[in-house]
Amino acid sequence: MRATVDFAPLFRSSVGFDRMLNSLDLAGRIPTADNWPPYDIIKTGEDDYSIDMAVAGLAENDLAITQERNTLVVTGRKAPEPQSAAEYLHRGIAGREFERRFDLAEHMKVTDAHFENGLLSITLKREIPEAMKPRRIAITSSTTRAEEAVPQIEAQKEAA
Q1: Which residue intervals make up region (Disordered) (predicted)?
Q2: Could you tell me if 116 and 122 are in contact, meaning their C-beta atoms sit under 8 angstroms apart?
Q3: Chain-centre distance of CA 9, in angstroms?
């Protein structure tokens, strides 16, 4: 049995987080149907992350990584093997097709993908644009504004 979480108090005290809260609510309702291939999500720094996927049985050419807006899609499709005379008595290495989707936060970008020894490593970084970074806002008082207005009025009188 899964407990439900009421996000109503958060809606009352936050602005602009409705998309994230809706995603959390939806994630709690959708059962995970497939857990293959196994993967780890690692936070390697303040704004740096890594996803490691164990894709044994697949080659580098069998994998595709795409990023569409805030979704990272990793697909694996094994190329058909030529007919061989070998007869498998047991086939335990999974080489099946898969599609794994990851929802990414705003401003997340894939910076690198590396495949070695059956492990696919995807490096991600949050790159916040300068316009979105915090900036200090100067506070002025009404007396400061009045003092700044006096020279402007005097300059307009002299020009006339």
Answers
A1: 139-160
A2: no
A3: 25
pTM here? 0.63
Residues 6 or more apart whose CB falls under 8 angstroms from that of 105 comprise: 70, 126
Sorted by sequence, the CB contacts under 8 Å of residue 124 that are 6+ apart come out as: 48, 49, 50, 51, 72, 104, 108, 109, 110, 111
**Cβ atoms of 39 and 50 closer than 8 Å:** no
Q: Are 42 and 49 in contact (CB under 8 A)?
A: yes
Distances (CA, A) of 151 to 104, 108, 142, 144, 159: 52, 48, 15, 12, 12
Structure tokens at 133: 């970074």
C-alpha 151/C-alpha 160 separation (Å) is 14
- Runs of H (alpha helix) within the chain: 8-13, 18-29, 142-159
CA dihedral over 40, 46, 47, 48, signed as positive or negative: negative
Indicate the pairing of strand 98-103 with strand 108-116.
Answer: unpaired
Mean pLDDT by 10 residues, the chain (160 residues): 65 67 67 77 92 91 91 89 79 82 89 93 90 84 62 61
Instruction: Kindly give the pairing relationship between strand 63-68 and strand 39-43.
Output: unpaired
